[in-house]
Amino acid sequence: MSGSTTQRFASLHDVELCSRAAIGERAAFGELVRRHGSAVRGLLRRMGAQASEADDVAQDAFLTAFERISEFRGEGTFAAWVKRIAARAYLRRLQREKKLGALASEPIDGEAEVEVKGDADAAIDLDGALKQLSAAERLCVSLCFGAGLSHAEAAESLNLPLGTVKSHVKRGLEKLRARLAPGGGVIVEGRRGNG
User: Which class for 176: exposed (0-12), middle (13-18), buried (19 or more C-beta within 10 A)?
Assistant: First the structure.
């Protein structure tokens, strides 16, 4: 993309870029990829993909998004839409490789305890905290909060009972709160509490 083209598209809203991409302006879609590519790869990494696999799935997701760009109506954000495409593509890849069933039904008894950080000045490390979750918890939390799927959609995608997905999400969020709360305190409505 030339400098003037990049500048021209940089000021446009995602919905405008989608409209232009739908009529064949590839540079407009290129701007969407530039804006949201790292967030999509980040979601896939949080779901458990290795770096190269996240790159591959993200590329496939953006190709799918480009092919289906006319379906994007702007009712939500483009980022959320392409993240959903990427999350589902990653799940399909896991199913093909016969890894999804093992991840989603991982036994709960063998889970490692989460080490609670006592240093209030420690930087919040979401990726590090997510790595402390079981694979099933990380997948469910990432699908529901990273990709924006409802619990029911995540359950359907993972072929798990709804209650199981809700349990994984609840347990995962509790562990994340314990790991990320300064001094191990309780987070209440976004603020640290003493209880």
Answer: buried
Q: Same domain, yes or no, for 146 and 90?
A: no
Query: Which is more confidently placed, 104 or 130?
Result: 130
In-domain check, residue 102 = no
* Full DSSP string of 53-122: HHHHHHHHHHHHHHHTGGG--SSS-HHHHHHHHHHHHHHHHHHHTT-HHHHHT--STTPPPPPPP--TTS
CATH code of the domain in which 176 resides? 1.10.10.10
pLDDT at 117 over 70: no
Q: Output 108 or 82, whichever has higher pLDDT.
A: 82
Contacts of 155 (CB under 8 A, 6+ apart): 161, 162, 164, 165
DSSP 1: -
**Helical packing angle, 14-22 and 26-47, nearest 10°:** 120
Q: Domain of residue 123: give its range.
A: 109-195
In a domain, 34, yes or no: yes
Q: Are 82 and 19 in a shared domain? A: yes
- Asked if 35 and 1 touch (Cβ cutoff 8 Å), the reply is no
- The answer on 91 and 132 residing in a single domain is no
pLDDT (tens digit, 9 = 90+) per residue, 14-59?
999 999 999 999 999 999 999 999 999 999 999 989 999 999 999 9
Counting the structural domains of the chain, the total is 2
